[in-house]
Structure formats: C-alpha cells, structure tokens
Amino acid sequence: MNRLTAQVKEKLSGLKLKAVLFDMDGVIFDSMPHHAVAWVKAFVDEGVDFNEYEAYKREGMTGFATIQEMFLAQKGREATKEECERIYATKCKYFEQEGPADVMAGIREVLEFVRDAGLQIFIVTGSGQHSLFEKLDSLFPGIFAPERMVTAYDVKKGKPDPEPYLMALKKGGFSADEAIVVENAPLGVTSAHAAKIFTVAVNTGILLPEDLLSKGADVLFDDMHEFRNALPEIINFGLKK
Ligand code: MG
Questions:
Q1: Local confidence band at 87 (pLDDT 50, 70, 90 cut-offs)
Q2: What is the CATH number of the domain that holds 80?
C-alpha cells in the first residue's frame, strides 16, 4: 500500500527538511514488549486487571500516573504513595528481568538512509538513563551526538506536552517545518503534533492504527521496513522546493 497519499505529499511539499527527530522506546529499541509484560505482572500482583494493550496505549506516561489511573478506574480511589512506590518498584524489577531490549528491526537502515541524505538525527525521549548516549553510540557508531538528544533532564514537561519536541527544534535551531518526527506511541504523536511538526507514526507494537491517527499522525506505517521503503519519497518531497 502506498501511504503517501496526495494529501500527505502536499504536506511534505510544504517542508524544508533538515532534521529527523526520533523517539527512542518503540522506535530505536523494541522495548515496549518488556515494559508491557512488566506492567501486567506488577498489576496482577496487586489484583488490578491490566493487559498489554493498556500498557501500549499509555507508553510515555509516568509510572505513578499509570498506577493512579488504574486505581481510580478499578478501586474507585487513588493509590497511596506507598502503593505507587511499591507497584512501580515491582514493575521495574520485572522489567529488568526481561533483559536488554533488542534494536528495532529495520531502524538501522532507516537511520543510515537519513544520515546519508544529509539530514540531522535527533533523539527525543522521556528516558533519563545516564548511560543512554554511550549505549546508542556503541550500537550505532557515529549516528547520534549528545548535543542532538533531548532526554528527561532537558524538559519540565514530558510528552504529551509539546515541550520535548520544541526543545529539539530549539537545540537544533530549526523551525517546525524543517523537521519530521518518528513516533510509535499515542502520547508521543500528541506531543509532536502539538509542536506542529509533521509526524510519522510507525506502529511497531500492538496498537490499532486509529490509536495513532486520532492523535494527529500525518502518515502511518506498519513497521520500520515499510517506513524505510517510503523514505526516499518522503525526503524528496520534503526537500524539493
Ligand atoms: Mg515510543
């Protein structure tokens, strides 16, 4: 299926592409299955119904916010601070048991194509791992740079607020029409759309297309291979003036 409809091409034609802003979890790393399994197990331990789809829909939400939502919905009350801390610690323990996440299938080819096209590559993530750049640089030598990353330490408000993507534009000295975003999660798409940046959603998990399109994704791909195949045309339309 060609996802680049006339409407999508028209939007791309309004861009002056200089950079591609990549989300990390579920885009660079196939980490969402691990998060989802860990959340389900942690909630089961507390007698809270939760499934992996619920976890995917909330990707990027803080752990405490996720716990509060489920307590309000199922127990009719807020979780106490102790409950939040206990459940989140349990979730983190189960997440670690899952081991390191794989690199997302097809992302290496996407990153190399974007680099070779002369566009700047940014990472925009809610993650706050201190060793993040070292990990990225060892897996993808020469692709990323610390000055082209926005992490939890750079922003006051995380996704779905537009601040993380606006911060990436600021760091790079770009306007919104000089970048596109690559996202996999509803809250991330909401953030990028609110920052008025053309947003490519890649449904790398178990969400329904509508979960991403309804948040403002400009185009949706089923996986990184499909996105990679469309990239020459996307960049061509985004550069051609
Ligand atoms: Mg993500």
A1: very high
A2: 1.10.150.240
